[in-house]
Amino acid sequence: MNTAEQDLxxxxxxxxxxxxxxKLEQVAETHQLMVEVDPLFYGHLAVWYQRYGDVRDHKxxxxxxxxxxxxxxxxxxxxxxxxGLPPYQVARVIDFMKQKLGKVPRSTRTAVRRYLTRxxxxxxxxxxxxxxxxxxxxxxxATLHIKPGARADAILFKNDPPDGSLAKVLKQIANAPHPSxxxxxxxxxxxxxxxxxxxxxxxxxxxxxxxxHNMSPQEVINHLKSLKARGAMDHAEMKxxxxxxxxxxxTDTRISAFKAQVAAETVDVDGETTAKxxxxxxxxVKRRGTIGKSTALLVDKSGSMSSAIEVGKRLAAMISGISQxxxxxxxxxxxxxxxxxxxxxxxxWERAFKLIKAGGGTSLGCALEVMCQRQQKVDQIILVTDxxxxxxxxxxxxxxxxxxxxxxxxxxxIVRVGHAYKLVENQLRQQQAPxxxxxxxxxxxxxxxxxxxxxxxxxxxxxxEIMETPLPIRH
Length: 475
Hints:
Layout: H1 3-15, H2 25-37, H3 39-52, H4 56-67, H5 72-83, H6 87-101, H7 106-120, H8 123-132, H9 134-143, H10 150-156, H11 166-175, H12 179-189, H13 193-199, H14 205-214, H15 217-222, H16 224-229, H17 236-249, H18 259-266, H19 271-285, E1 295-300, H20 306-322, E2 327-332, E3 336-338, H21 346-352, H22 366-373, E4 380-385, H23 395-406, E5 411-416, H24 423-430, E6 435-439, H25 451-455, H26 459-467
Helix pairs in contact: 1-2, 2-3, 2-4, 3-4, 4-5, 4-6, 5-7, 6-9, 11-12, 12-14, 14-17, 17-19, 18-19, 20-21, 22-23
């Protein structure tokens, strides 16, 4: 593999650490370059990411490029993957293809027609989709000039839903004279929180409890701020319902690993609920795999490196929770500070990093120097930094001494934060040291994407795993 090809593949993996928040153009250029330069790898990466990735924006861009690819295998895989997306994501895929890629091939129109027809053929599925994503489904019919069936047309466009449809039930709920009747219909027909709150003028405790009963664990986390504002956290029975949902969120495979932590930080809830949200994050992170290599996590705490400390504590929680080998954690400026936690939960690492404050000069090699003196041998070094250093010992020189002392060649993963340089990366490459870099510019939702890169024995094995992921075949 020549250097340019290797760097492009790693740049593609690096881009997966960003969270565009629907600004898909921020990642489109890298996707476009990869699909042109290495379409074979791109196709397998697209399918692999649908299984293991966390960021929905990337999934949409992957499917878009597969559907517009000049390779029949790509278009077939995109056709199949599109069928598994929720309606709002299908609509985003089509809009991205139109606005950024400039085309919607006939095969894509066929894929969307099949997507909509299959849902029309299952009234329960169609009603549920139309209730949650009415605007997106209407958009798909209209923008691709697909004629809806009579029942779909009545629900979506004529605002005359037939008896027995969920749209009709929603009208009945809005017009029901008593909260008890509204609550009964909400529970019986599993009306979503976001839909009901837009249709019911007054949410009584009875109705609100019914809505919480219907919510999935992820929906509770997503709407926690709204629930608190409506008084749910102050009502004992509703608070218990919420706590029960948060308990189930720990093992729910559909939970975003860091959304619970973000909710804990942004919603003013009591200590008990905060602890439950942190536990959700901890459990979800630990589902990501296991690390069999001894690892050093070195976190830059020099001036302006507050962001590195925040990333570092979350990486420490992820790694410690899934590591089956030694883990050494240091924060450093011109002097290394060993960081030890009493447990592997994020809350434990929050406490361990509590007194670590950004400030001072920068010696990227000082922590590795101490590890050498203490005979702390590792197979992998994760360096969270902007790569700027102004004080000895310097990292590249210390790394050489470390390798000679132990007869090892640890892989170095540089997680760039802030206004990053390429100083250390370039020095290590000149030494032909195994180094990979990942620029963290997104938020913490994307950080778990690093885990698959750390759990494989080598980067080559990860690339081979991606290449061995089969493309689904259209039938």
